[in-house]
Structures are given as C-alpha cells and as structure tokens.
Design goal:
This protein is of the alpha+beta class. The protein has one domain. Helices cover about 45% and strands about 10% of the residues. The chain contains two helices and four strands. The strands form two sheets. A two-stranded antiparallel sheet has the order 1-2. Strands 3-4 form a two-stranded antiparallel sheet. Strand 1 and strand 2 form a beta hairpin. Bound molecules: zinc ion. Zinc ion (ZN) binds next to loops.
Length: about 120
C-alpha cells in the first residue's frame, strides 16, 4: 500500500508511516506538534495574556477618567489572581489552537548532528 509509506525529507527513502525515525538517515519523524513548540506557545501566550490583563487591571485605571475603576479593581493583592488566571487561560487557548494547527502534519528533523 502506497498510502502507508512516506518519503524522508532528507534522504528520500520511502519509510513506513508511524515510525519515529528514518531507518536510513536516522532523522526524527514528528507527527503533529513538538514538545518544544508546545512549550514555546504556552510560555509566550501566558506572558501576553498575563501582561495584557495586568495592563488593563493596573495601568489603564490610572489613566482613565472613570473614578469608579481603581487599579487592581479594588481587589488589592488578590487582583494578581486575575492576572494569573487570564495568563493560564490564554495559554490554554493558544495551546489548543497550535495543536489543531499542527494536527496531521508530518515533519522530519535532523538530530543535533551536522552532516
Ligand atoms: Zn532519511
């Protein structure tokens, strides 16, 4: 069955779908998202969402003309929970998006070695 095979990006050997390494050139075969990509997207989106909510909660009220809105939304120290929660939530959403985006993709990576 031709469908069960795929071509290695580096050495062009036909290999079975599902294998973790190319048996000819030893490059890694990655299905979907990599751990590194997952880590990167989690970290950057947590920083973005956390930073954005910190801005809205602490900085924006200082410059708004609405006296009703006070920095920290009047929650004092506990307003940090809003920042952390939005960071975690944003990170979760971004991770799900990235996983879906990379779903079904098959990529080849050379191991640390340079040929
Ligand atoms: Zn190969």
């Amino acid at each position: 069955m031709e469908d069960d095979k795929m071509k290695c990006k580096f050495c062009h050997t036909m290999i079975d779908k599902g294998v973790a390494v190319c048996y000819n050139c030893n490059s890694d075969v990655v299905y979907g998202i990599t751990k590194q990509e997952l880590f990167e997207v989690s970290r950057s989106s947590a920083m973005w969402f956390g930073g954005l909510s910190a801005f809205i909660i602490y900085i924006l009220p200082e410059y708004s003309n609405m006296d009703l809105i006070v920095p920290g939304f009047g929650l004092g120290f506990y307003s940090i929970i809003l920042v952390v929660a939005s960071g975690l939530y944003g990170s979760h959403l971004a991770r799900q998006n990235k996983i879906i985006e990379k779903q079904g993709s098959i990529r080849f990576f050379r191991k640390g070695r340079i040929y």
